[in-house]
User: Fold this.
Amino acid sequence: MRNRLSNRGSREPTRSASIASTRRVAGVSSLMAWRRRVDRLLRRRPKAAPGEDRISALPDDLLLLVLRRLDTRAALGTGVLSRRWAGLPRELAALDLRVSDVLPPRYQRWLLRHRDIYSKGTFVLYRPRLARHEFMPNMTRYERRAMRAFTRSLEGLLAAGARRRVSRLRLEFFTTRNTGCIDRLISHAMDDWGVDDLEVIARPTFYQQTVHTFPSHGLCEEPGASRLRSLKLGCCVIPRRLHRYGALTRLVLQDVAESPPSAYENVFDSCPQLQVVHLNSCLCDRDAVMLLDAPESQIRELVIDNCVIGSVWLRDLPNLERLASMGTKLCFESDSVPFLRQWHLARRHGIEVEGFRQLLRRHLELNQFVEHTRDITDLIIRFTGPDRWIVPSTSPSSLLPNLRRLLVADVPSSWDVSWPRALLEMAPALETFHIHIASCMEEPNNEEIISWHPTKLRGHRLKEFVMAGFQGAERQVYLVKFVMEVCTALRRVAMFRNGHAQDKGHWDWEMVMQQHSWTQEEKDATLNQIMGAVSSAAPPVQVVLG
Assistant:
């Protein structure tokens, strides 16, 4: 029996070893079979023969993806490579033709050098004769050469006579006497190519600040049949018959030459599909009045940014929802904007010349700005100047009953920063209140402190109050204490030494903060100042110091 057991025990390792070797062989064979399958699936192509063009063998869709990632000038140049490439540039739906692509790097260096001299104020020390004989000849020479090459390329594009379907065309050029081919290209693109998004930016030359003037027929021969939906013009004269583009929905005019108010009024009144209008740094008579009375208008978004004009009167824009008025006097008539919901208002008053500063000083009541905008929900206000010119209304009332979000930005630290209390009293439904205090060199003027009357405001719905630029000044602390006293729904109060309000478009913002290291003594002193106004029965408020 022992011998049998011993023999059986001696045979066990042999059997296990054979099983293991069998498994290894099976694993190796399966691995080799898997590799053979992978090699068949991922078999490499044979090496390209000398002169074989693999890129041209790609399908058109892939080649067009490559061309769209190139600048337009390079993409159009690929048409001379071969017959295979000749028709591809015609399939590009967007053309971006810029004279800046032709300018050499030396031009940019000269331009930076010129700006650096004038920005540092060293132009007084710079010899005028050297500047006249060095800057002007070099800059103008580069601009002339660039425009010659640019116009030759445009003439070649027109001479090709290829049928295209282009949806977007962007042109950037210097305003010179040789811009006839640019006008022809614009007309051809709108009449024959069916462009619906057009951007024309004219750049003044180094020595001559001129604007581009379109031909007598305007942008194209048949404006009524045009598909144009979006138009942006920069440093141009408003073209004739602009009001005849019935499909136009978006219009941006920037640095437009001086034009009568009627040129703008006709566009508002005669473009039935127009929904977005931006007027940026446009020129009119300083004493002129632009009257916007378009009861059939579909305009929903209007931006008037630093336009030189006496004032803009909104008489009737029944569908306007978003409005931004920066640096331009804007007046409302009753019920002129019944659907206005978002408003960005920026105004600056006063002069800094000491001899005339007090003489020409005036005050404006807050209700003059908001008495006809009762339905807005989002408001951004930027009131600036050497002295505080805004004052609370003599007869305060709830002029902003639907306001939910408020930003008061760039308040000079020399002002009485408690003036936004008037906005809080006008907006009983306000939920978010952000304020940014901008530091300035001047000291606060004690004569300008507002004498507030006792408030009747109680149980306000405000939930969040954030102050950026908090330095613990008396009027800053006063505003924080007032907010915490009257706002029983308050949940968060944040005060930051360093921070600012960063715009996200024209009607939204984000408070960007930088953390400050407060000492424990500073924290205790600040909290003791502001928490004294909080009732013990009030719900807890999160106070953040940063």
